[in-house]
Task: structure prediction
Amino acid sequence: MKNILVTGGLGYIGSHTVVALQQAGFSVYIIDDLSNSQLEVWEKITAITKIQPVYYNIDLKDLNAVSVFFQSHKIDGIIHFAAYKAVGESVEKPLMYYRNNLMGLMNVLEAMEENKVDNFIFSSSCTVYGQADAMPINESTPLKRPESPYGNTKKMGEEIIEDFVNATGKNAIALRYFNPVGAHNSATIGEVPNGIPNNLIPYVTQTAMGIRESLGVFGNDYETRDGTAVRDYIDVNDLADAHVKAMQRLLEGKNKSNLEFFNLGSGNGSTVLEIVTAFEEANNLKINYEIKPRRAGDIVQAYADYSFAKNELGWQPTTPLQASMQTAWKFQQQLGEVKE
Result:
């Protein structure tokens, strides 16, 4: 049984990926400092899979603690999620984002080299494309300077990994996701933001729950179908499946270069108001919303061409948007009130 380290494994995408890895027969270790996650997710993962992953609370900025972990465990592959991820906050606190996201990455890579771990998957983002000139976005779309420090940490992260694999001969895959939505079918795990949500769907579900008075729609003057921004919403369970397939590709030596990039999206662009309508129709609810000014760092539109992932990883999304809207709401109802 191969041992996989998942950093940020108690977070939203990380926890779903831990479940998928365990169900695929991997032994999973989690490192998470709980800066944007909750310890109870560890028990919820165990409840779903009936297997308790090994968990450590380690700050990845602490190189000594990271080194001690790697010296103590034989790891066959790493999936690196751990990062701060709020676009707006990154504009306000850029140094915090650069320090956390890049130092954590570099410490993991350094320990990986010292302890002869060969396989690394990076949680990247479509933000590396900035505002692309043409849609849909494929892996050949030129990269631009991202619109936010958060996005820039992903772009810089990819560049660091590229230099690292060129120097060491290690193998890496960067998965560039679009906008994850939905929750596990059990409604046991899902997206739990700390405080006011930065992502659309938790904002929608908390508004439906009455936790928020209304949903803020940031900008209705974009050049889109209804004036609101267009994004590609991909179910979190489909994303988790892609991580398992990517790790299997590396472990089986099927990668065609030391660093590969894959776009993970649904292939469809939806406006914010279309998502609100989809949520309302899927759950027979009405959402109060108000138009607010554009948010710093946001782009007009982004949606994926995932054909490369389909051809190379044998992956494609299978969860309809309606189902994602239903699991997101089911999870929010199970969650109830949220901590500020």
Observations:
- The first helix runs from residue 12 to 23.
- The chain has two domains: 3-182+234-266, 200-230+267-303+318-335.
- The first strand starts at residue 3 and ends at 7.
